[in-house]
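Methods, example record. To illustrate the input and output format used throughout this study, we show the complete record for Glucoside xylosyltransferase 1. The sequence lines were provided to the predictor; the line carrying structure tokens was produced by it.
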Amino acid sequence: MRVYLRTFSLCIVIALLSLVFLFSKHDAESFKAGLKQVRAPLEPSVAKNFNGVKSKQRPTVTASHSLRNVAHKVNSPGKRETSMQLAVVACGERHGEAVNMLKTAAVLSSRALRFHIFAEEQLHSNIKTALDSWPAFIRAKFSYVVHPISFPHENHEEWSQLFKPCASQRLFLPMILKEVDSLLYVDTDVLFLQPVELIWDMLTHFNSTQLVAMAPEHEEPRIAWYSRFSRHPYYGKTGINSGVMLMNLTRMRMAQFKNDMTSVGLRWDELLMPLLQKYKLNITWGDQDIINIIFHYNPEMVFTFPCHWNYRPDHCIYGSNCIPAEEEGVFILHGNRGVFHSDKQPAFKAVYDAFKHYPFGEDLIASFLLPLEAALNGTTHTYCGKVSHFFTRGLGKSVRKIQRMTPVGG
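The corresponding predicted structure is encoded as:
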């Protein structure tokens, strides 16, 4: 009887161990299948739509001067395209802002530029008419492509309406501009106050892990939005602002990004939709929040540039808090929250209007700089107006240099 009981007990132990082994094997296979499910649907949907399923129009390519085709360079932080590549996304009423931003880039820069303009179909004609109307000596500085708005087919509506219409288009630029190695993306409400080549050359300062460059969202954590109100992970102490975003697209396409959804790294195109599904009820600023989540888990990939490369009303509305702007002047002015078109921040509006109304070929000092300085002097009743000399400190030097090199009338 005792021998029988021992044999029976041994059989039960063996059976239990067999069950444990089978369940372990099943769990491992389930995880692999789940990961495969995350990876598999994304790339076909992106490729399918970017080849024209949702958007029937093709990019309009216009070259104002002879440029070589952009070559695809693999992981080359020091070797760049023939032209500086500048991208903007314009939807709704934003195309006028976009054209004015491009005007600032063309006026101040001396190197060749390539504009990538993403816009709704009904805006293409107006944008092309505006750029083609510029005088030949300005058009000789750049070429441009007008691209259709394009999102992954299966989630087109969700992406297109995230935060503001078309704003999240920037997330898909690495997959759309497959032949472009590096790119400077800016929002439409941005004005260059220094030549584009100064920020473009930051690409040569990237180390081996860095693939994007942005400015902090704020300089002071105690009053920063992300550190006070965010309901999701964000980069650093105050988050980053994606309104001015310098990208090594080659590295972005190749990188494996750490994340809080899987134990393995995911490619950029594999990461976007799962992040939106996980955090869409917790994000406020749309695609910028997604960018902050990504680089919270991959901080080594970010090159942080100073606040005067992305100067916003937050840097002066409650008093000056951007020390580099105090020392060197503002290099890029970002008029978020519509301040270029309202009287809330008249100093910002004065700069926008000065560029908008400047006639190409006129004396830059007499027809642009002096009227701008006079307009800014009338804004000193506001906090930003009190520091508006930051806006013209570097700009004045660049304008005078260009004026010395450019005869009146072009």
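Annotations derived from this record:
The two ends are 110 Å apart (CA to CA).
The chain is about 40% helix and 15% strand.
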